[in-house]
Amino acid sequence: MDSQPHAPTLDQIAVFLAVVETGSFAAAGRKLGRATSVVSYAVTNLESQLGLSLFARAGSRRPQLTEAGRAILSDTRGIAIALDGLLAKARGLTGGLEAEVSLVVDVMLPANRLVKALDDFRRHFPTVALRLEVEALGAVTERVLGGRVAFGISGPLELESDLLVRGPAGSVKLIAVAAPDHPLALIQGAIGANLARDHVQLVLTDRSPLTAGRDFGVLSVKSWRLADLGAKHALLLAGLGWGNMPRFMVREDIKRGRLVELNMEGPGEMLYALHSVYRSAQPPGPAGAWLMERLSMGAPSAAGKEFR
Question: Most CB atoms within 10 A, among 36, 134, 213, 274?
Fold first, then answer.
């Protein structure tokens, strides 16, 4: 083999990834609609271009990646994903507006922010249909990853994936609240974690395996898990526990005395970071990109801004 590597073609990269994905030259040929010999020839040429042996063929019925093959796998996938993204963006720009924009938003996103953005969207894109879903925590990103929606506005989720593009979309302030007659609401002075953990905490959870077994802001050893923020709000008003809620959602309850903001020790207020998220291989079209930008507050520094 030539000791000096040369740039492979995009077709060679596609064939290489097809063999890795399917596990054999024959299966890759079926996937690509090519003869097995053509696939084998493309891989051989790729190895010659790079000056590397990518598959160990001897002594195995299925080609196995060599150490060099494993080393370049991530890079070749990155090239393929970048190309998919380029082609998808070009299709969106040349194909005109989408017939429909589908999105999913985190339940913590303030309703007034959502309503204002959708009202503006309706005026700017009167011919584009809209499909909106509301989920919690990891379920937002799961819907995006599954290709069910074009983009999402997600809460905090520590998920690194080259399949996703994320951007800042502001934050929501969370405060601890309880009904006025709840034992924690009757405490004078700061409430320590040792006192809070002895009372039932109402905790928002989700239906996604992406955050299975993970807790967000949980102090109490006694907790009720709820997948619906509205149900959590109702139980707080009924005095069945205490919990963290978006300030904008309970502001009127506090004003009218239906809920009390708890004086918790420590930082007290928490910021629930929001992010825009979409699949790197299929970015939103013109109308979807416009709406995603509007929901993200339209600025790179949106992570430092708070929804009220």
Answer: 274
